[in-house]
From TrEMBL:
Domain Transposase IS116/IS110/IS902 C-terminal: 275-360
Species per Swiss-Prot/TrEMBL record: Streptomyces mirabilis
A GO molecular-function descriptor: DNA binding
Domain Transposase IS110-like N-terminal: 4-161
Superkingdom of origin: Bacteria
Record protein name field: Transposase IS116/IS110/IS902 family protein
PANTHER family: PUTATIVE TRANSPOSASE FOR IS117-RELATED, TRANSPOSASE FOR INSERTION SEQUENCE ELEMENT IS1111A
InterPro entries tied to this protein: Transp_IS110-like_N (IPR002525), Transpos_IS110 (IPR047650), Transposase_20 (IPR003346)
Any one GO biological process: DNA transposition
C-alpha cells in the first residue's frame, strides 16, 4: 500500500508518499495551479495509482480547487483536522520542530497507521454540494446581518434612543427598509424631531410600505418629538456619521441574505430528497437546506443514526473515570448543523403535537431545561430523518411519536 500526504498552503503544496513500512518514497513541492495538479497526478500514477486501486490522500482542508481535482477521480480523500495532525507530529519529533515537507510526511503516516480511525470526505452529488454552498453562504449572511444589527443597536443606545423606541414594534426592526429610510433621512435625533408628517410618509413610501402610512407617520412623529436626553451637538453629529457608515454595511448584509435566501429557494426543491426533508415538521426550505448541507447525500457517510447524532452534537457524551461518571452535552460537533437543529426543534414544538408532547415530557418528567429538552427532541427527530432518508419514506407523525399523538388527541377530545 502507498499513502499520500499533502500539506496544503495558499500558493504551494508539499506532497509526500510513503509505503506500508513508513519509508519515504517520494516528495514534491507543487504550485496551486493546473501545472501543479498535473505533477501531482503524474506522481500518483508513477507509484501505481489506478482507478481500481487508488492511493488514499490525506490533507488538512476540505475545500478548494485541489480538493475539486481530487474529487474527480476515485481517490479516498481524508480531511485531517489540523489539531489532530499537530498531535501526530509529536510522535515523530519530540523537539516540536515543524516544516511543510515534514507535515506532508506526518499526514501520509496518519493514513498508514490510523486510516481506520478517520472518515473520508463524503461522495456527495454535485447538486447537494451546490445546495450546501448556497445554504452555508445564506447562514453566514444571516449571522453577519445580525452582528451588524447588534452594532447599530448598541450605537443608537448611546445617542439615539428615540429610534429604538420608534422601531421597537416592528418585526426585525433595524433590518426593515422603513428603518433604513428613516435613519438616512434623520441621522440624529435632533433632525428626527424636525421631520414633518409629509417627510415621514415619503420615507415610508420609499421603503415600500403601502398600508397605514398616515397612522404610522403620526406615531413616529410623536415618538421622535418626545422628551429624550441628547448628546452635545458636535458629538451627536459625529455619532450620526458613524451610524451612517454602519447603516451602509447593514443594508448590504440584508440584501445579501435576501438574495441568497432566494437562491436557496430555487435550488433546494430540485434536490431529489427535498420532499422527504420538507415533510418533517419545523423544516422549511432554509433550515432543510442547511441540514442537507451538513449531512450530505452520501448514504455511506454514517454507519448508523448514532454517528449522525454525535456529529450534530445532539446525543450526550459520557465521561467516566473510576467511580465517577458524568453525562453532558457535546462540545466538539458540527456547529452549523447544531444551530440548524436548534431552530428545527424550536419550530417543531408548535408544528407537531407529538414533538410538543415529547418536549413537555422532557421538561416535566425528566426536569430538563429548555435547551436540554430541545436538544433531546432534535436528537430524536434527527434519527427519524436518518431512517426516512435511508428507506425513502416521508415523515409520519403517528409512527414518529405514537405516544405523543395519542396524548395530543386525548387533550383535544
Amino acid at each position: 500500500m502507498i499513502y499520500c500526504g499533502i500539506d496544503w498552503a495558499e500558493r504551494t503544496h508539499d506532497v509526500a508518499l510513503v509505503d506500508h513500512c513508513g519509508q519515504l518514497l517520494a516528495k514534491r513541492h507543487i504550485t496551486d495551479d493546473a501545472a501543479g495538479y498535473k505533477i501531482l497526478m503524474d506522481l500518483l500514477a508513477e507509484y501505481g495509482d489506478t482507478e481500481e486501486n487508488p492511493i488514499p490522500v490525506a490533507i488538512e482542508t476540505s475545500r478548494g480547487l485541489l480538493l475539486a481535482v481530487l474529487r474527480t477521480g476515485k481517490w479516498q480523500v481524508f480531511a485531517i483536522n489540523p489539531m489532530a495532525a499537530a498531535r501526530y507530529r509529536d510522535r515523530y519529533s519530540v523537539s516540536r520542530k515543524k516544516s511543510d515537507p515534514g507535515d506532508a510526511l506526518v499526514l501520509a503516516n496518519i493514513l498508514r497507521t490510523d486510516m481506520h480511525a478517520h472518515r473520508p470526505l463524503p461522495q456527495d452529488s454535485d447538486l447537494a454540494r451546490a445546495v450546501a454552498v448556497l445554504a452555508r453562504a445564506q447562514q453566514d449572511a444571516t449571522w453577519n446581518r445580525q452582528q451588524i444589527s447588534n452594532q447599530l443597536r448598541s450605537l443608537l443606545r448611546e445617542y439615539y434612543p428615540s429610534a429604538l423606541a420608534a422601531f421597537e414594534s416592528w418585526r426585525n426592526g433595524l433590518c426593515r427598509p422603513e428603518a433604513h429610510e428613516l435613519l438616512k433621512a434623520a441621522p440624529t435625533p435632533t433632525r428626527a424631531a424636525r421631520l414633518t408628517r409629509t417627510q415621514l410618509q415619503a420615507a415610508l413610501k420609499r421603503a415600500g410600505r403601502q398600508r397605514g402610512i398616515a397612522a404610522e407617520s403620526d406615531r413616529l412623529q410623536e415618538v421622535f418629538r418626545a422628551d429624550w436626553a441628547h448628546q452635545p451637538l458636535l458629538v451627536e453629529e459625529a455619532l450620526g456619521k458613524q451610524r451612517l457608515a454602519i447603516l451602509v454595511q447593514l443594508q448590504a448584509a440584508c440584501t445579501a441574505a435576501d438574495d441568497l435566501a432566494k437562491a436557496v429557494e430555487e435550488a433546494f426543491p430540485e434536490y431529489p430528497d427535498a420532499e422527504i426533508i420538507l415533510s418533517f415538521p419545523g423544516l422549511g426550505v432554509q433550515i432543510g437546506a442547511r441540514v442537507l448541507a451538513e449531512i450530505g447525500d452520501d448514504r455511506t457517510r454514517f454507519a448508523d443514526a448514532r454517528g449522525l447524532k454525535a456529529y450534530a452534537g445532539a446525543s450526550p457524551i459520557t465521561r467516566a473515570s473510576g467511580k465517577k461518571s458524568n453525562i453532558t452535552r457535546r462540545w466538539v460537533k458540527n456547529d452549523r448543523l447544531n444551530h440548524a437543529g436548534y431552530l428545527w426543534a424550536f419550530s417543531a414544538i408548535t408544528a407537531s403535537p407529538g414533538a410538543k408532547a415529547h418536549y413537555r415530557k422532557r421538561r416535566d418528567d425528566h426536569g430538563d431545561w429548555h435547551a436540554a429538552a430541545q436538544r433531546n427532541l432534535f436528537n430524536r427527530m434527527l434519527g427519524q430523518l436518518y431512517h426516512c432518508l435511508r428507506h425513502n419514506h416521508t415523515y409520519d407523525e403517528t409512527v414518529a411519536f405514537p405516544d405523543g399523538s395519542v396524548a395530543a388527541r386525548a387533550a383535544v377530545a
